[in-house]
Specification:
With 645 residues, this protein is an alpha+beta fold. It has 21 helices and 25 strands. The strands form five sheets. Strands 1, 2, 3, 4, 5, 6, 7, 8 and 9 form a nine-stranded mixed beta sheet that branches. The chain binds ligand 28G.
Length: 645
């Protein structure tokens, strides 16, 4: 008995601490379960997780500024001016509140129904997950006139919570370095971080958000939007001329949800609706979006009917009233249910009715108070309806014709011989010459080639009837076999892999973006099914005598140069470097080895968010000015390279 007691006294760990270690171990063993992935996406998720906590403090009304810094070594600091995480000893756990937050999974907040915490998807997993996946994490708290500090290493406490000195003001500062043992990618993308932080700033009006990149001479960006999502709509509309100047904006507080909506119509032909739940982008939509769509269709039809704008049996479909619409819907829900493949679809059915009622009420008021805007919107929708009808007639005609001719495939398509779609691949190749090499280099059993000549039509700038009269687009649609839009049928897909293969230059990036935009707008289900990919041709060939290597980026190139005994800064000692400017510079054999052979190629699966971002950014900046367009294409070329983000 006595002996046993002694053993316990000498032991380092209490039951609570053992639980903590077990929890952290679980996170480190299966990080994907907590942050989705250990690639670039997961890496960025760590920042969002920490920033989310600061945003919660801002939403509670105690924080006005959140500053994120990327340090030279890709460690991150997030600082807020909130109340500071509590430091007092927890009554039952007997450790400081901050230590609980840092070490216990899901500590705090989860059962706090008075806040809009996020309890689904990958958000809201808690800062302890960030702690567990960081080489080190340091927290500094200013509270009650004192600065407190504590350090952790791989989630384990390295120092006790200590007082550092006197504090002015209050707040929380967290610095962490993602663990190289966990993550396969350790370099932060400024582009990705700035897009998300800007989005957060739009969604939380008046909040100051700052992003600093110390890898880039301390480059600093500040986001603050006093107009909130109304300003977001203006930003998203970009260069497209508006149908009405005033953005329709309202807020509505209901028992089921707090609802905020901003919308504006423009002369463009696409729909740009972005929906959010508790600051999270609900890419897959859900109940709030369903409510919004129902209310839009009903309210606009009602208004037109009441004001005698329709000719006798005219009416507008949902698609008609959403043409040229830029819209942001942000709802706050106490207990959100996130569903769908990427957990970005709102499942709470009570939110549908709440959004529908709020939009019915406020949109009809807006139309009544702005009759010129109302006229413009309805006129625009009627034009959309007429174009849709014309396109439908043209399609019917085409269908009858192709039924007679037995469903003719495009002449330019070099099809494969196998007929099982699950095994078949379609390469969409930029240019006839690369198309020729691909045809010769491919495995004709299961690989089909469709060369695309010249510029692809920008579907953002054309109405459906014009899109369908474009030859390149028609060839793509027929080759794939699913049809588009309302007539889309995934069962019709003739290939389960569709690979976009373009040159690794600005023009190639442009064509890739146009194709992504086309898929995103006309057949999003194809992307959702995971059928759309980007092929990755190499950028360099490094050779010496009979040995040769293909490199997909500069770093890889330098590694091969070194391996072959070349000079530190390039060629020499018989090592030759060839830079590929286009696919056409590779012979069929090289193209096969580097880009088409499933055993050696790397391909990137396109995610719906990537296509959405590419399409929206593109559309926003495709005004008539050349400079922003060039800038965008250059940025986008970089972005698509990091498609995994
Ligand atoms: C800089 C990086 C990220 C944060 C706070 C402030 C409080 C807090 C955070 O409390 C425990 C659970 C629910 C109340 C709350 C301070 C109340 C009073 C806080 C952050 C206690 C967590 N005083 N600021 N957590 N809650 N900033 N920034 O993490 O019941 S986290």
């Amino acid at each position: 008995m006595a002996k046993k007691k002694q053993e316990q006294a000498g032991s380092e760990y209490t039951a609570g601490q053992i639980q903590v270690l077990k929890g952290l171990e679980a996170v480190r063993k299966r990080p994907g379960m907590y942050i989705g992935s250990t690639s670039a996406r997961g890496l960025h998720h760590l920042v969002y997780e920490v920033v989310d906590n600061a945003i919660d403090e801002a939403m509670a009304g105690y924080c006005t500024e959140v500053e994120t810094t990327v340090h030279a070594d890709n460690s991150i600091t997030v600082e807020d001016n909130g109340r500071g995480i509590p430091v007092d000893i927890h009554p039952t756990e007997k450790i400081p509140g901050v230590e609980l937050a840092m070490t216990v999974l899901h500590a705090g907040g989860k059962f706090d129904k008075n806040t809009y915490k996020v309890s689904g998807g990958l958000h809201g997993v808690g800062v302890s997950v960030v702690n567990a996946l960081s080489e080190y994490l340091e927290v500094e708290i200013k509270r009650q006139g004192t600065i407190y500090h504590q350090r952790y290493e791989r989630g384990v406490k390295a120092t006790e919570l200590k007082k550092l000195g006197k504090a002015k003001g209050t707040g929380t500062k967290v610095t962490f370095k993602p663990d190289g043992e966990i993550f396969t990618e350790l370099v932060y993308s400024f582009e990705v971080l700035s897009n998300r932080l800007r989005e957060i700033a739009f969604l939380n009006k008046g909040l100051d958000i700052i992003l600093i990149d110390e890898r880039d001479g301390g480059h600093k960006e500040k986001y603050r939007y006093d107009g909130g999502i109304a300003e977001y709509v203006t930003f998203l509309r970009g260069a497209r001329p508006p149908v009405h100047d005033k953005v329709c904006y309202f807020e509505s507080s209901r028992p089921e949800a707090e609802i905020e909506l901003a919308l504006q119509y423009d002369q463009g032909f696409s729909e740009n609706t972005h929906t959010f739940v508790n600051n999270i982008n609900t890419h897959e939509g859900g109940m709030h979006l369903t409510g919004l769509k129902a209310a839009l269709t009903r309210t606009i039809n009602d208004y037109a009917r009441r004001n005698g704008i329709f000719k006798k049996d005219e009416s507008l479909s949902g698609d008609d009233v959403r043409e040229g619409l830029t819209c942001v819907l942000s709802v706050r829900v106490r207990e959100p249910q996130f569903e769908g493949q990427t957990k970005t679809k709102l499942g709470n059915s009570e939110v549908k009715g709440a959004v529908e009622a709020a939009v019915n009420e406020h949109l009809s008021t807006f139309l009544d108070e702005n009759p010129r805007a109302a006229r413009g919107i309805i006129e625009k929708s009627l034009q959309a309806a007429r174009a849709r009808e014309a396109a439908r007639k043209a399609r019917d005609l085409a269908r009858k014709k192709s039924a007679l001719e037995g469903g003719i495939l495009p002449g330019k398509l070099a099809d494969c011989s196998i007929s099982d779609p699950a095994m078949c691949e379609l390469y969409l190749v930029e240019g006839d010459s690369a198309g020729g090499s691909a045809k010769q280099g491919r495995d004709r059993g299961y690989q089909a080639i469709l060369p695309l000549r010249g510029k692809i039509l920008n579907v953002e700038r054309a109405r459906i009837d014009k899109i369908l009269s474009n030859e390149e687009i028609r060839a793509i649609i027929t080759a794939i076999g699913t049809g588009i839009k309302e007539e889309f049928e995934i069962e019709g897909a003739r290939y389960h892999k569709i690979l976009i293969m373009t040159d690794a230059d600005v023009d190639g990036a442009h064509i890739r973006t146009l194709l992504l935009t086309f898929f995103f707008r006309q057949m999003p289900e194809l992307i959702e099914a995971g059928y759309v990919y980007i092929a990755q041709p190499p950028l360099y060939r490094v050779a010496k005598g009979k040995s040769e290597f293909y490199a997909y980026d500069e770093q890889e190139r330098d590694e091969y140069v070194k391996r072959l005994g070349g000079d530190g800064d390039g060629e020499g000692k018989g090592v030759r470097i060839q830079r590929y400017k286009g696919l056409g510079e590779m012979n069929p054999d090289q193209l096969w080895k580097t880009t088409m052979d499933p055993d050696t190629r790397t391909i990137l699966k396109v995610q719906i968010e990537d296509a959405a971002i590419a399409s929206n950014l593109f559309d926003r900046l495709m005004g008539d000015e050349v400079e922003p367009r060039r800038e965008f294409i250059e940025k986008n070329a970089k972005y698509v390279k990091n498609l995994d983000v």
